[in-house]
Amino acid sequence: MSRTRGTRGRRPRLRFDGWIAGVGTSSGTRVVLGHWQRSPFGPFSDVMIERADGERLLLAPSHRTADFVSDTYSFDSVRVVPVEVSVADETWTVAAGPLELRFTVGRRRRALGVLLRAVPGVLAARPAWAALTNGPAHLLPTHVRTRGRTGARRREWYGVRDMRPVGVVSAVFEGLDLGVMAPVEPPVRFGFGSVPREPTLTRVTTTVELR
Length: 211
Prior knowledge:
Layout: E1 3-4, E2 13-25, E3 30-38, E4 44-50, E5 56-60, H1 63-72, E6 77-80, E7 83-88, E8 91-96, E9 99-105, H2 111-117, H3 121-124, H4 127-133, E10 147-149, E11 155-173, E12 176-177, E13 181-182, E14 200-209
Parallel strand pairs: 5-6
Antiparallel strand pairs: 1-2, 2-3, 2-13, 2-14, 3-4, 4-5, 7-8, 8-9, 9-11, 10-11, 11-12, 11-14
């Protein structure tokens, strides 16, 4: 299910199931891709970009998704553009308006990735699982938060189900090559947490509780 109403008195919750890729580049630009295979808006992808000077940009495929994402997170500008994602073997290709992005995905190098892959979808969708894995003192890397408050007085939980390292990145934004892959440093500032410092592809079930 992509939308849950819960018991009487509980605020409505929206559920998104898919992947988040976070990568840095040597130019200082960091890119976060959300590739949602199941959502209340149907399948869609969006891209969040933070440039070296701190400007935060959202690329979304429709006004409806742009409004929802920009209400939930913080951006300096929002553009509605076609966002297309294709996956062939271990290579992801993204075309999103002024952005051309390609990256490869490597094998799981940590026991954590193997452990998370075994998490059932039903468990990952529960806020209690996000609470269990929240914070660097537990399972996930520094800067990663799996629960918190967002814009429009919403609450959000990330149920992490898999993590794989990104191997090679090529990215062009507005015709300029962004350079080679680099750590996501400094952390991105769209919401209450960042993606891992090491470029990573993460499988998540995200729950957003509305006002």
